[in-house]
Amino acid sequence: MSQSGLQAATFFRDVRANRVVWLVRDDDGSPTHLSADGTRNSPFWSTSPRAHRAAKIWGAWAPRRFHALGHLV
């Protein structure tokens, strides 16, 4: 399985087990990226530690708040 395939499988396994996704926000909202066609992507993580790790990689982006969006079906 490819690295991206393994990451996707892990994401869906975690979300299925915990029924929650995590997002990171600051006073301006969530960090997003523009795709090649100009649409915005909203980043979500499958666990709190993954969200914290991503925010740490971003470095100076602060203050950060971590939000769980739960009760997913």
Describe the structure.
It contains two helices and four strands, in the order H-E-E-E-H-E. With 73 residues, the protein is α+β, with helices and mostly antiparallel strands. The longest helix has 16 residues, at 3-18. The N and C termini lie far apart (26 Å).
- Low-pLDDT stretches are none
Largest sheet, strands/sense/barrel:
2 strands, antiparallel
Number of DSSP helices?
2
Helix and strand element order: HEEEHE
Shape descriptor: globular
Structural class: alpha+beta
The percent range for strand residues is 15-25%
How many strands appear in the DSSP assignment? 4
Strand order of the largest sheet: 1-4
**What percent of the residues sit in helical stretches (DSSP H or I)?**
25-40%
Span from first to last CA?
Answer: 26 Å
Radius of gyration: 13 Å
For the residues shown, what is the average pLDDT? 83
List the helices and strands and how they pair.
Elements: H1 3-18, E1 20-25, E2 33-34, E3 40-41, H2 48-58, E4 65-70
Antiparallel strand pairs: 1-4, 2-3
Based on the model shown, name its key terms.
single chain, 73 residues, alpha+beta, two-stranded antiparallel ribbon, globular
Question: What is this structure, in a nutshell?
Answer:
This protein is of the alpha+beta class. It has two helices and four strands.
